[in-house]
Amino acid sequence: LAKTTQPISMDSYEGQEVNITCSHNNIATNDYITWYQQFPSQGPRFIIQGYKTKVTNEVASLFIPADRKSSTLSLPRVSLSDTAVYYCLVGENYGQNFVFGPGTRLSVLP
Amino acid sequence: DTGVSQNPRHKITKRGQNVTFRCDPISEHNRLYWYRQTLGQGPEFLTYFQNEAQLEKSRLLSDRFSAERPKGSFSTLEIQRTEQGDSAMYLCASSLPGEREEQYFGPGTRLTVT
Question: With contact defined as beta carbons under 8 Å apart, do B16 and B81 qualify?
Fold first, then answer.
């Protein structure tokens, strides 16, 4: 049973804000929500992690509602270089329960 | 520190041959992970080490695969009697245990089995 569900792909234009939502209905009390980004021919790169409410860093914001059954990664004013696959993961941040799904393929168009 | 490094970056081998990949983690990181990734899929967990101890291994991992981390620093992943289905990108990552544990990935080794 998949732990997370997210859209397979999204398109956007440069300068727009992009929101990618991830569903995780079976999230456990101790689970964190983590997002990674992957460019072609590179390993994934950590973007942001949160437990509840809102987290913001220099790259993105993560919004988590009170029931924590979903989360939204927000990328402000995307550029062409934000074209990548974005993965949502829940749970402990290591081991075989740290599961990457197929991710969301974001294409930013000029 | 230059991050996680992996060698070789590319490997082409014939079916039935053995191959070995090397991963050098970030020096102070005591957790090290191996993943496999095929086209269009996310990385698939293979195994992980804490220092020199191999703590978890995927239930899906064939006994042709073996990994070592003899001194708790670099690690090797060996695939014996390679099959065409082993063709994939093999990724290594390392981390420091903690509440906010971030895995740092290497560039990967792309294996092609002909």
Answer: yes
